[in-house]
Amino acid sequence: MKPWLRYLLLTFWLGVTVYFNTVAAELYRYKNEDSVTVLDGYVPARYVKSGYAILSLDGRVLEVVPRALSDREIRERDRSLAAAESIASAKRKREIVDQNLMRLYGAPSDVIRARDAKISSIVSLIETQEGAIKRLQFQKRQQESVLADIERAGGVIGKDRLARISSLENRIAQVESEIAKKEDEKGTLSIAYAEDLKRVKEMYQR
Fold it and tell me: What is the pTM (predicted TM-score) of this model?
């Protein structure tokens, strides 16, 4: 046999040997519809969803492919993942809040001082607005008194005088609304500072 032909045949047989060794390098273990364990070179498509194992030729388990989840199991898994993510997210947020509190306050007494200063500022503003309302109400009574005198004298009340009273009433309502908002803000701040104070005390007691 000619050398080149011998070389060609040798190369061919080596290629065939490598191919078949590669194809048969793994076995698949699965159960059929009768729950019988099967070892084969492939897994029929209808059995894939039930899961299978990939084995080496010497029987070592190389990989286990779990069965496909049912719709109910998928929903339960997704709910569990969502709950776990929610808990983790809340924990991360709590850690960020705690870090900010530690930077803001060196001790629980600092929270109290900050709260008192803020509340005092709002109370002062409310008192100023309440004083403004008293002045506006006094001006309104004066205007109403003038209108009463004009009516008693049989005079005609001009539109400008009525507009002046209406403007005073609108301004009084506006300031009252601002006071109500400040009262709400004061209540919200009191609750927020109470939560901060409680948390800072907990952190400094660790």
Answer: 0.56
Q: What is the pLDDT of residues 46-57, one digit of tens each?
A: 999 999 999 998
Do the Cβ atoms of 197 and 111 come closer than 8 Å? yes
Q: Smallest Cα–Cα separation from 108: which of 116, 70, 31, 16? A: 116
User: What is 171-201 written as a DSSP string?
Assistant: HHHHHHHHHHHHHHHHHHHHHHHHHHHHHHH
Distance CA 206, CA 13 (A): 75
Mean of the pLDDT values across residues 193-201?
94
Position 191: which residue type? I
At residue 15, the pLDDT reads: 41
∠ CA 111-117-120, rounded to 5°: 135
Question: Residue 75: beta bridge partners?
Answer: none
Average per-residue pLDDT for the chain: 87
For residue 121, the tally of other CB atoms under 10 A from its CB is 13
Which candidate, 166, 127, 117, 120, places its Cα nearest to that of 143? 166
Measured CA to CA, the distance from residue 140 to residue 65 in angstroms comes to 85
Classify residue 151 as exposed, middle or buried by CB count within 10 Å of its CB (0-12, 13-18, 19+). Answer: exposed
pLDDT in tens, 10-29: 344 434 333 344 444 589 99
